[in-house]
From TrEMBL:
UniProt lineage: Bacteria, Bacillati, Actinomycetota, Actinomycetes, Kitasatosporales
Localization in the cell: Cell membrane
Protein's name in the database: Sugar ABC transporter permease
Domain named ABC transmembrane type-1: residues: 117-331
Residue stretches of biased makeup (Low complexity): 1-18
Length: 341
């Protein structure tokens, strides 16, 4: 009898366990269905809270100030410029109605349009090449932690803290042939007999302005490249040295490929800033001598505030914006293909 009693007890325990499992499964299924129904009928707040407490609503709230700022100060002015470019819009008379595409055809008829484009492109190429090369050299010089490196990093970066207009005024005083110290210094050293006009010819005016820009922005771009250099693991360099690579091989095979994102950012900022050059030429040369240093942005300024034609100036602005967008797209595409290869 005892084996039968034991078997009955074991069977009872198994049945009780099975009932417990079924009960648990049933309760879990009911709870799951209830949760799904709750989420459907009461979206998406935390713990079933109101919609304004959801993560999506909080994200929209955080993005709203920036979106408002961009809309008010970029999107709406851009739409207004687009309307101006299609209208007869004198500065002092206001909108006189649509005259499209007269503004765009008048742009190409301007005698300064093509010279301004050629000069702007020439200036951009020179500044970009010199700045990238010098910034990379400075970054490599202050890459390692040595005594005095912090001082040189600060000295190199210090001109970048000065505003471009202030730096242009400073160099305008330095370049002055009558009151500037540079011309007097050269005369005192016996290198020249007469006062030097650094801004008196097209070539000297261009090179003098390039020197100003390189002096001001080399430290800023050095800082960008220095951050990229410091992100390269030291183990990579150590492994290359153990394999017998020299400095040139390390620079060409390791440093440049791993520094490509920082170089791309530097190239993008430098090219865009050079294409939009205005302050330095407006203060130093005012487009002279003989309109030889007129940039495309100076031409926009002249159309808007000297010829008082906002329509033509807006058409020029739209053309410049389209060219900048195209150049940026081409740069990003080229960098993406280089990374994939």
């Amino acid at each position: 009898m005892q084996p039968q009693v034991a078997d009955q007890a074991a069977a009872g325990r198994r049945a009780s366990t099975a009932r417990t499992r079924r009960t648990f499964r049933t309760r879990h299924a009911k709870q799951t269905r209830h949760t799904i129904r709750t989420r459907r009928t009461n979206p998406p707040g935390p713990a079933g809270g109101p919609w304004w407490g959801s993560r999506k609503a909080k994200g929209l709230a955080y993005a709203a100030p920036t979106a408002t700022f961009v809309t008010v100060f970029f999107v709406l002015p851009l739409l207004l410029v687009g309307q101006m470019s299609l209208s007869d819009w004198p500065l002092l008379a206001g909108d006189r109605g649509i005259n499209s595409p007269e503004n765009y055809t008048d742009v190409t008829d301007n005698t300064l349009f093509w010279p301004a484009i050629r000069f702007t492109l020439l200036y951009t190429v020179i500044v970009t090449a010199v700045l990238l090369g010098l910034a990379l050299l400075l970054a490599l010089l202050v890459q390692e932690s040595r005594p005095g490196v912090g001082f040189f990093r600060t000295v190199y970066f210090l001109p970048g803290a000065l505003g471009l207009a202030s730096a242009s005024l400073l160099f305008w005083g330095l370049y002055s042939p009558t009151t500037g110290p540079l011309s007097a210094l050269l005369e005192g050293l016996g290198l020249v007999d007469d006062p030097v006009s650094f801004l008196g010819s097209p070539t000297s005016a261009l090179l003098s302005t390039v020197f100003l820009i390189v002096w001001k922005f080399a430290g800023f771009y050095m800082l960008i490249l220095l951050v990229g250099l410091q992100r390269i693991p030291h183990e990579v360099y150590e492994a290359a040295r153990m394999d017998g690579a020299d400095r040139w091989q390390i620079f060409r095979r390791i440093t440049l490929p791993l520094l490509r994102p920082s170089l791309a950012l530097t190239l993008l900022l430098c090219a865009t800033g050079s294409l939009l050059a205005f302050d330095q030429f407006f203060i130093l040369t005012k487009g002279g001598p003989d309109n030889s240093t007129v940039t495309i942005v100076q031409l926009i300024y002249r159309e808007a505030f000297q010829r008082l034609d906002l329509g033509t100036a807006a058409a020029l602005s739209i053309i410049v914006l389209a060219v900048l967008l195209l150049l940026n797209v081409l740069q990003f595409r080229g960098l993406r293909h280089a990374d994939e290869s």
